[in-house]
Fold this protein.
Amino acid sequence: MTTSTTSDTKVFELKPLSKDSIEASIEKAEHYRLLNQPLLAESICLDILLVSPDNERASTILLLALTDQFAGSSSKAKQAMSIAKSLKDEYSRLYYSGIISERLGAAALKSGIPGCDFDAYEWYREAMEFFEEAEAVNKEDNSDPVLRWNTCVRIIMQYHLCERPAYNPSMLE
């Protein structure tokens, strides 16, 4: 193990993953994500992407693992959106951008912060727009964008979410 010390902090060098173990590692990342271990899935995907930077499957799993952590970190959303924008095909870029917005809506709704219902509405509406665009470019018989769009609609209706009211200074008088 290679380490160096800087003022009581050890710096470790990561061990590279073997290219032969990429497929098994992808399966592990998916497995840990499904076990609600997004940090472990994230770490595995980062290891895969170090040796195979264009691996779309690892990028997608990483994006989803990041969205699993939205309630705990706002920086994860920027990272996830950056990954979504880098995906190769237009459908994937749109669909996964919708997933990110949808999960930001869920995180906002769970936050309990005043005004979070308006924030959630805005995120769900943005997700719906991405899902509509993904549906329009969908070349396969893939119903995922429709199913996600419908889920957003049901959540908006269930929680009676609506647009943020326009600011009216006369209300303060």
Summary: The longest helix spans residues 90-111. The mean pLDDT is 93. The first strand starts at residue 3 and ends at 6.
